[in-house]
């Protein structure tokens, strides 16, 4: 990867979050929490473009290869993923329409693929070619965490919780290590899927669900 491309990769989180922030600001003026839909489309599209631009000759399926055996980190990743399931179990009654249920499932199925292929795939792998492995982990995790308050947090109260930031920091580091240990994003994507199921994403975007501390 050329030095210019390396700099572009390093700056790509700023661009993705910046575009997402402007999208959230604009649409939330007209449709409040439903701004999550255009934001999701813009966010996934911008990550998709970055994945294509920065993956080089590497096929996307190489990140989805069969995992190397690392029972410890796969187990830790799954445990971290299951933490938010308690939120679902205690608040499932908030799904008072089929539309909310469908949108929640659609988001949970799509989002982990784009986020993991970008944050733990292209970005993490690209950075560690020129920087230390731990700098790459911290850098990618930092901006992964910041994307939540600066994009979803524009209209979602729950996305501005410091408890969320702590959890996402832990999850981001665990997922990065799991990827390094298994050489695959399969288990990471699955763990992320469980998280998006458990934390009631769409309900938090619409402020139907609010954490007890807020």
Automatic annotation (TrEMBL):
One of its GO terms (molecular function) is endopeptidase activity. InterPro entries: Rce1/LyrA-like_dom. This is Type II CAAX endopeptidase family protein. One of its GO terms (biological process) is CAAX-box protein maturation. Residues 99-197 form the CAAX prenyl protease 2/Lysostaphin resistance protein A-like domain. Pfam families: Rce1-like. The chain crosses the membrane at residues 7-27, 33-54, 74-92, 98-114, 134-158, 164-180, 187-210. Keywords: Membrane, Transmembrane, Transmembrane helix.
């Amino acid at each position: 990867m050329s030095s210019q491309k390396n700099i572009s990769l390093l700056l790509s989180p700023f661009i993705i979050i910046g575009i997402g922030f402007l999208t959230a600001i604009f649409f939330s003026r007209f449709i409040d929490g439903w701004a999550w839909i255009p934001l999701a489309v813009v966010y996934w599209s911008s990550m998709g473009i970055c994945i294509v631009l920065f993956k080089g000759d590497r096929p996307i399926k190489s990140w989805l290869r069969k995992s190397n055996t690392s029972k410890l980190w796969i187990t830790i990743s799954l445990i971290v993923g299951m933490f938010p399931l308690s939120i679902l179990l205690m608040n499932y009654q908030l799904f008072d329409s089929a539309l909310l249920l469908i949108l929640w499932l659609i988001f949970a199925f799509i989002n982990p693929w784009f986020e993991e292929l970008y944050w733990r795939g292209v970005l993490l792998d690209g950075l560690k070619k020129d920087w230390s492995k731990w700098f790459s982990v911290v850098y990618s995790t930092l901006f992964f965490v910041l994307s939540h308050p600066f994009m979803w947090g524009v209209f979602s109260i729950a996305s501005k919780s410091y408890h969320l930031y702590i959890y996402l920091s832990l999850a981001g580091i665990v997922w990065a290590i799991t990827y390094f240990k298994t050489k695959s994003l399969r288990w990471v994507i699955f763990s992320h899927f469980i998280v998006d199921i458990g934390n009631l994403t769409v309900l938090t975007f619409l402020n139907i669900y609010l954490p007890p501390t807020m």
